[in-house]
Amino acid sequence: MEKQCNRCGHVMHLYLRKLVYMNHTQIEHVPMYWCCYCGHHELVEQIKEELKQCLQRLHTEKGTKAISFAEHSIFTRMMLKTCAQKPCFTVDEWLDLYLLAKSLGDKQWLRQVLVSLREVARSKCE
Ligand SMILES: [Zn+2]
């Protein structure tokens, strides 16, 4: 699951990100493309409509704190199955992502990257 970055032409990787909607609702497992060369992010085309519907529902269901986007998206469920919740990144790619999260000052994302990085590193040693 890769595509070409429309900014710099390098390969973009698919990963699952947590989004925060209206500062109160966390949406986990939102598939996005990320370019590790220029840092360009892009929502996956296949999920745009599902995400829109999901956000509309969240808007009416006030008080919802956290959801998994996989409950609303077949594409995401498929992706979770194939990637077992983790983007298929190598340690180097995770390190790039770590630097990006750090430069953006996104602490929550940084923590997420660190946890995944540790898991990838551990699975390499076993
Ligand atoms: Zn790029």
What is the 3D form?
globular
Note the main sheet. Answer: 5 strands, mixed
Number of helices: 4
CATH architecture of the largest domain: Roll
Q: What is the N-to-C order of secondary-structure elements (H for helix, E for strand)? A: EEEEHEHHH
Class by alpha and beta content = alpha+beta
Strand content: 15-25%
Give the C-level CATH assignment of the largest domain.
Alpha Beta
Report the count of strand segments: 5
Mean pLDDT: 83
The molecules bound to the chains, other than polymers, are:
zinc ion
From the alpha carbons, calculate the radius of gyration and give it in angstroms: 15 Å
The rounded distance between the terminal residues' Cα atoms is 27 Å
Instruction: Please mark out the parts with pLDDT under 50 across 5 or more consecutive residues, or reply none.
Output: none
Number of domains: 2
Fraction of residues in helices?
40-55%
CATH topology term of the largest domain? Ubiquitin-like (UB roll)
Task: Give keywords.
single chain, 126 residues, alpha+beta, 2 domains, five-stranded mixed β-sheet, binds zinc ion
What order do the helices and strands come in, and which of them pair?
Elements: E1 2-4, E2 11-21, E3 25-35, E4 41-43, H1 48-60, E5 66-68, H2 74-83, H3 91-104, H4 107-125
Parallel strand pairs: 3-5
Antiparallel strand pairs: 1-2, 2-3, 3-4
Helix pairs in contact: 3-4
The protein binds zinc ion.
Zinc ion is lined by residues 5, 7-8, 10, 35, 37-38, 40.
